[in-house]
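Anyone opening a protein record will find just a pair of labelled lines. A complete record is shown below as an example:
=====
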Amino acid sequence: MNYGRRVDSEMYDYLLDNGMTREEYRFFMSHRLKRWCIMGNDYYVTNEHLVSADGNTRAAGRSSAMRPSPGSTTTATACR
């Protein structure tokens, strides 16, 4: 939302159901915050966890489909 992109209706319902007000949503859509955003992503094998139906978690290990190229662990994107 910091990038000023509207969310789909399912996500909008989720946000409202979990405490976001319509006024807060409108703030993000109207204040053009994109120019101030810098997005950085760090990847570590320990970031990914599997969550079972009973809520227990365990490390996903190397079974995950998304993996960076060898030697690349961090990306940063300026949003201008």
DSSP finds two helices and four strands in the chain. The two ends are 15 Å apart (CA to CA). Residues 40-80 form one domain. Confidence is low (pLDDT under 50) at residues 71-80.
